[in-house]
Amino acid sequence: MNLHSVYGTANPVIGMVHLEPLPGSPKHSDSLQTVIGRAVRDAERLESGGVDGIMLENFGDAPFYPDDVPKHTVAAMTRAATAVSEATTLPIGINVLRNDPIAALSIAHAVDAAYIRVNVHTGARVTDQGVIEGVAHETLRLQKQLGSDVSVFADVDVKHSAPLASESFTAESFADQTDRGLADAAILTGSGTGHAADQSYLESMAAVREDHGLTTPIFVGSGVTKDSIETILSTVDGAIVGTSLKQGGQTTAPVSVDRVRELMAAAERVR
Fold first, then answer.
1. Which InterPro entries does UniProt cross-reference here (predicted)?
2. What total number of domains does the chain contain?
């Protein structure tokens, strides 16, 4: 995957738009139009602050369906993604929590998004939604059927989960997953939202990519801050940032343009 052709840089920083609860989810209260308006506001602030891309996800819909979300969720996310794509010039991505890559790819293809995030692309993970199995075989076949050029960003050892077997996730498993799962990019995270990935872990994954002759871009997908972004971009290819860009560093708060600018200023020192 050529990151520069999509983002205009070889070390992109992607900002998160965490959608508020959508219609039908337990915590939904405001109108869909209000939810979309706030998503557009955050997207515009991210662009104004200088990020290279945007990732949209149904963060407010907890507790999440483990896989297939209802049709009304797909419809609401399609409306939100359309509004965000029309409000910015940045490439956008879609993540349908907890793990519905078929819906994500369908939305992304419909709104001309650039990529999707898949939390469990291959293998199986134990999560608070139960055991989730990857459906890479279905996702990639749908991609082929649609003639879609939407890229697949796949989590490796995804946050808020544990391996199904007792054996810990290994660097060799990373190479196997990205090679056999045909993901366009790999995402490494800490243990949860806002939790940093261990630097030695990032270095080991970057090393195994080189050792196996892989070219799959690596992103860090949690716990990225203005203080860590330089080290991260010196180790791997890109970052997906949410919590630290919000007012007060609170995941559910609105995006702070000042925080975005501070992080991007740090990123520019190593790009």
1. BtpA, RibuloseP-bd_barrel
2. 1
